[in-house]
Amino acid sequence: MLMSLPVNMNAETKEIDMSKVDLSEKIDMGVAIEDSILRTAIFNNYKGKTYGYGVIDNGLFSVVDVEKNELIFTEDIDGMRMLWAMAADPISGSVYFAARNVSNNENQLWGYYPEHQELVKLAVLPGNLDPWSVATDSNGKVFVGTYSPAKNESAVMQYDESSKELINLGAVGRDSNYVRSMTVHNNKLYYGTGVVPHIYERDLNTGEIKDITATINDSLGIDYQTMNFAYDMAMVDDLLFVRIDKDKSDSLVVYDTVNETWKPYRLHKTDKPGAGGFNQLVKHNGNVMIGHEGTLQSLNPETGETIDTGIELTLGLRGATSQVVDGQNMMYTFLRTGEILEVNLDNMEGHVRDNALKPKALLLHNVGVGNDKNIYLSTYPGGPKGARFNIDTETYDVFNQGQAEGIVAGNNDDLYFGIYTGAHIDKMNTTDLSKVRLFNLGDKYDQDRPYIMKFYNDKLYIGTIPNYQRQGGSLAIYDPQTEDVKVYEKLINNQSIVGLAYKDGKIYGSTTIHGGLGLDPTESSAVMFVWDEKTETLEKIFQPDIPNIKTAPMISGLEFDNHGKLWGTANGVIFRMNPETLEVEAYENVYPEITSRGFWNPNKIRFGKDGLIYSNLGGYLTVTNPDTLKSVKTGQTVGFFELSDTKEGNEAVYFITDGSRELSKIDILHKDLTVDPVEPVDPVEPVDPVDPVDPVDPVDPIDPIDPIKPVDPVDPVKPVKPGVLPSTGMGNMALYSSLGLVVVGGFLKKKGRK
């Protein structure tokens, strides 16, 4: 339904014929980025040899002979995008892992058996329980920790190798959406949850569960309830090592399982990075090798003192093992990009081996355009690569890059990236792809995802999503000239900022009701707002007067056109607003079947050279006439997109969809969309004048008529009942007629009446 009020968009605008919109078919531009990315890995021994195991992003299970640095087995698991959880049984040599398969939406548990080099799908978990952690015991039991979108419904699943039975051990406890880490020791299962980081001990004989988190506060003087996730854990002897508060303080804490006490120290982030991740740890000369402050360090587990080896280890350990080689104590761990880091523990010298793993195409996550008109891409999850697509050569240049939630061009060769996690803001020089990190909004302001970034009047404007289990996004304004950053926290109560547009000193913004993961929204509908940059005041919070979006979870896509009108989207609606009055001048519900769409990723609106509006309204490439708001619905799903030129000089839509490994484009082929002029009608030939009519001769006078003779008197008529015909036969008809009567339906009536 179109609602439109009179508005003069442009007196000189020519009428557009939407039937002339001509777009090419989808054209894939080839795989953008390939790499051997490991989210996690594990080491295990089998028949006296050490092997490394991992699943490369997008499902390539791989086994490496550590001694030879040789890939000995691979198998592709179609639909397994990424893996977070692996465990090894040191007795049998078997390896287990679990992940969601997006090709059939199954939550799958897999096992690898080295004796026959056999990879087997063992079980399918309930559909609402995504696997996030795995552990094994010495009795052929495999435990899987899960995520549930419903708070307090995450559970631990148990698979029995002997019976092939999968059972649910039950919900894990309060404040828990995730069972994020697990390990088994002395017939007890330890598991860490999130978003609030509880740590539980479950007796596998009795089923008794104990929350051992409560005493952390007394031992360490911290409030664990303000932290995020018990993210990693591993056993060394009788000590349980746990990393909590990932991407914030990144703290390492140690629990003595015999004395049931926490060690009186905590390693954490300072001006240097905190503890890195791990799922296996190595002990050497009484100390434990950990990642901390961006390097490999040797930790005294009793005192908390560390010795820095100087070996770079920015992201922690992906599996770890040690063995004696030629009389030297050697340690091995995988790096994120698949190489094995080998460390001589006797002299603390490290060496990165050649990568033995095969690369796979990485998932793409965002699309931006630079002032050079080239297309810039990010990968998911967490990066670690980005790419530039050269529109002239149609080739890719790959660079190191975190997961960019927002990408926007600045002045000249500047390109800004908003990085998850921690809402880091990076600046790239697009001439040489060099980058610098400017600041972050995570450490001080608890923000995590900078999804909306705009550049106006030499300033960068940023809207953010908060950290896990937090509500309230921030507005940040960065001045590249002064390097000053102004941050306005929780501008809209319990809502995050996903739309920004600037005009005449005012910022027009919009929100999503969703905050960080782990919390349900408290608000029922998204809103818009006006912020005065000069006075630093919030002038107004309001909802656009559109019936179809009263309960929309997100309003986004805010852009001003050349005529000063503000455009936006919500659900399946595109609208145009007068920024002075904040009145909606026109709207069109293009996709009325969409009634509650939007989480974090905002829609985009882009104005084409042809005068049309291109958007991903409703998740589809949609082309809209800005005058009538009538749209062409292409049916092509679009996640992120931008407009830019092609090597032929045309304009094109460059885009990715969910699960894309390739950049795609659709060429805009039409040239002239104006309505064809009406053909002029030939002038009518003038009609010849009519000749004058000859005069008519006068009519001769009529002779006089003879007088009428008198009629003989008629016999008197017998009286009849009113309206009833006398039964005197048809001969009376003449009589009735002489009296001005007629017979109708057997009744006498006056002539002329009905």
Q: How would you describe this protein?
A:
The chain is built from 2 helices and 61 strands. It is an all-beta fold and 754 residues long. A 5-stranded antiparallel sheet has the order 1-52-51-50-49, with no helix packed on it. A 4-stranded antiparallel sheet has the order 2-59-58-57, with no helix packed on it. Strands 4-5-6-7 form a 4-stranded antiparallel sheet, with no helix packed on it. β10 and β11 form a beta hairpin. The radius of gyration is 40 Å and the shape is globular. The two termini are 52 Å apart. The N terminus and C terminus are likely disordered.
* Termini separation: 52 Å
Q: Which regions are unreliable across 5 or more consecutive residues at pLDDT < 50? A: 1-13, 707-754
Q: What portion of residues is helical?
A: under 10%
Number of strands: 61
- Report the total helices: 2
Taken from the alpha-carbon principal axes, the silhouette is globular
The average pLDDT value, as a whole number, equals 89
SSE layout and pairing:
Elements: E1 2-4, E2 27-31, E3 34-35, E4 38-46, E5 49-56, E6 60-65, E7 70-76, E8 85-88, E9 95-101, E10 106-113, E11 118-125, E12 130-136, E13 141-147, E14 155-160, E15 165-171, E16 176-185, E17 188-195, E18 199-203, E19 209-211, H1 216-220, E20 230-236, E21 239-244, E22 251-256, E23 261-262, E24 282-284, E25 287-292, E26 295-299, E27 306-312, E28 318-325, E29 328-334, E30 340-344, E31 349-352, E32 360-361, E33 363-369, E34 375-380, E35 385-390, E36 395-400, E37 403-409, E38 414-420, E39 424-429, E40 434-440, E41 447-456, E42 459-466, E43 475-479, E44 484-488, E45 496-503, E46 506-512, E47 528-532, E48 537-542, E49 555-560, E50 566-570, E51 573-578, E52 583-589, E53 605-607, E54 613-615, E55 620-624, E56 631-637, E57 640-645, E58 651-656, E59 662-668, H2 733-738, E60 741-744, E61 747-750
Antiparallel strand pairs: 1-52, 2-59, 3-32, 4-5, 5-6, 6-7, 8-9, 9-10, 10-11, 12-13, 13-14, 14-15, 16-17, 17-18, 18-19, 20-21, 21-22, 22-23, 24-25, 25-26, 26-27, 28-29, 29-30, 30-31, 33-34, 34-35, 35-36, 37-38, 38-39, 39-40, 41-42, 42-43, 43-44, 45-46, 46-47, 47-48, 49-50, 50-51, 51-52, 53-54, ...
